[in-house]
Amino acid sequence: MFAAPQPDIETLEPCGAPHHEDCGLRLTLDRLGEKWTVMAIAELSAGPRRYREIERALAGVTQRMLTLTLRRLERDGLVHRHVEPTNPPSVTYSLSRTGVDFARLTAGLVNWSRQ
Amino acid sequence: MFAAPQPDIETLEPCGAPHHEDCGLRLTLDRLGEKWTVMAIAELSAGPRRYREIERALAGVTQRMLTLTLRRLERDGLVHRHVEPTNPPSVTYSLSRTGVDFARLTAGLVNWSRQ
DNA sequence: CCGTATCCCAAGTGATACTG
DNA sequence: CAGTATCACTTGGGATACGG
């Protein structure tokens, strides 16, 4: 994952404490709480996408938020960003191995949320 | 679950749009993003707990945030709140059926976050 | 097409004090 | 014991405009 190792669920308690805010679980949860992350991952789980394609798929997202979301995902190793230096430029995003795992995880959330 | 039905992952896109903010997935994700929710659920997954016990388990939580968290979980049907009208009062929280399901789901998140 | 740069507001959270 | 009531702060996110 993208951060430090973490105890199991029986000793989960201190994870929210000030001195534990950088733990892996917290990073995961914070990410899930971000407004556009899961939808971006879902869209990319269907295959590589260009910036504009993702923008269209995520109805209502602003360019600012989409860029922020994708950059964070890239920083954390969940997506790859490939730039084709044409004019105008062409940028393609795709899931990394970790990103695919994450997508599987969130698919479980999606299903659970339906019933 | 605690809200409206939802399309599957292939048609997930509009879920973040203004007119879809009340969908089940969004509610689930927002809840996961809340700071103390998952830890409270984890603590309760080990058995019923009194207010003070949860407070001690969630190192760093304020009374305000703990109450807010538990009230939201109760409102959404994930935990039960049982008041024993003694003096001083004794209040016990426990997971509902749905809460147990939710705990299982988050356990997956915990494991994934560890590596 | 693919972004950056500002400005601004509302929500989530924390600190602290008080109470039946 | 199990909360409420305020206040103050920080951050995420939206609106808008501009740029290579």
Task: Explain this structure.
- 2 copies of one chain form a homodimer.
- Chain A is an alpha+beta fold.
- The first copy, chain A, is built from 5 helices and 3 strands; from the N terminus they run H-H-E-H-H-E-E-H.
- The first copy, chain A, has a domain at 26-105: Winged helix-like DNA-binding domain superfamily/Winged helix DNA-binding domain (Arc Repressor Mutant, subunit A).
- At the A-B interface, helix 1, helix 2 and helix 5 of A face helix 1, helix 2 and helix 5 of B.
Low-confidence stretches of chain A: 3-14
Assembly classification? homodimer
Largest interface: A-B, 49 and 49 residues
What profile does the largest beta sheet of chain A have?
3 strands, antiparallel
Task: Return the CATH topology of the domain at 26-105 in chain A.
Answer: Arc Repressor Mutant, subunit A
CATH architecture of the domain at 26-105 in chain A: Orthogonal Bundle
Q: Assign the CATH superfamily of the domain at 26-105 in chain A.
A: Winged helix-like DNA-binding domain superfamily/Winged helix DNA-binding domain
β content of chain A, as a range? 5-15%
Name the descriptors:
homodimer, about 120 residues, alpha+beta, Arc Repressor Mutant, subunit A, globular, disordered N terminus, DNA-binding
Give the structure's gist in a few sentences.
The structure is a homodimer of 115-residue chains. Chain A is α+β, with helices and mostly antiparallel strands.
List the helices and strands and how they pair.
The structure is a homodimer of 115-residue chains.
Chain A: H1 24-33, H2 37-44, E1 49-50, H3 51-57, H4 63-75, E2 79-84, E3 90-95, H5 97-113
Antiparallel strand pairs in A: 1-3, 2-3
Chain A binds a DNA duplex (20 and 20 nucleotides) through residues 33-35, 50-52, 55, 62-68, 83, 86-91.
